[in-house]
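Chapter summary example.
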Amino acid sequence: MDQTMNQIAHHTDQQIDQRTNITYNPFKQDFPLLANNPQLSFLDSAATAQRPAVVLEAQKSFYETMNANPLRGLYTLSVQATQAIEKAREHVAHHIGAARAEEIVFTRNASESLNLIAQTLGKQLIHKGDEVVISIMEHHSNLIPWQQLCAQTGATLVYLRPLKDGMITQEQIDAAIGPKTKIVSITQVSNVLGVETPTKCIIARAHQMGAIAVVDGAQSVPHMQVNVQNLDCDLMVFSAHKALGPMGIGVLYGKLDILNAMPPFLTGGEMIDSVTETSATWAPVPMKFEAGTQDAAGIYAFDAALLYIEKIGMDVIEQRERNLAAYLCEQLNSLDFIDIHGPAEPTRHIGAVSFSMHGVHPHDVASILDMSNVAIRAGHHCAQPLLSWLGVDSTCRASIALYNDKNDIDQLIVGLQNVRKIFHAS
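The structure predicted for these 426 residues follows.
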């Protein structure tokens, strides 16, 4: 028996090693767009991921087999649609380590989730003289809602300003988060630098000061194991479309007591308990925050995306993507006309690497790379304050996912060398 178990363990280790080997790609065939375009090097997964066939099939299957408005009918199709949503809710809760399914609210995207928090909890907590703390690395979606709230209330928006490599020190955390801080909202992984923030330390300091801690997990949940109870964050947001799921589905996690205390954001539909001509009472969490008809097919398909991810294993995905990021940084560093922004250590890049080419605008770089079937992002990446802090107007960004391999990065490097020749021809 012990010998058999050892053989199984050895086989599993070999399988994990093979799947994390970036010269080998067992995943690309699962993604129809990539399988149908083998010449394409898709390196823009930080903006949106590709979807595996099982996700596309699940969304189609919902409309073909259980298309009905969930929560609103007692007939079989409606019951099945309702059960599909609740099963997905339970799955999301399990995937991020939430204590219960009721702590998961479905929205349209992470941006809507952050606006929901700012316009409900934020308006409850923030008054003149208070402080909201974010970092200079935030995506606009985790900056503008707080900026607007502070402008409306007379509160102050305080920025954590890391070192040039993206590192936030404990001294900076202690200096920024103080007795006036009521909310701290921080990205777990920067969408530009690909660097992980010391999220647990920031949350601990927020709680020490009596503040609420919000985490933007849009760039972390797709690439690393996230456990909200371990982090002890009060709220977290992320989008399905960056985690192999459909566009139009967002997730808001919140501790149940906090969600219960928050007023609704949108009204109408199934978010009510009862209505009279002059008043209304709200349905319990999470329905209180899910006004109108939900994208049930998209939620059902996101459930399929999580099943696909978990079948592979986040340990495999994390290791494969670490190997990809290390190779990407190594190859970019081999080009003397390329500067990488953020940490020099390849191991500190999660999912994304931003860089600049000497003397060539990032938009030109991206346009010419596209002619070679290499897709990267160029611009400010919805993080203009960060780029201003870096001293640049825009950058190129290559971002990876489990379906990438060594060839994708090699294709990028050849493309960059070609761009260099075009702009520096004698």
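To summarize the output: Residues 76-96 form the longest helix (21 residues).
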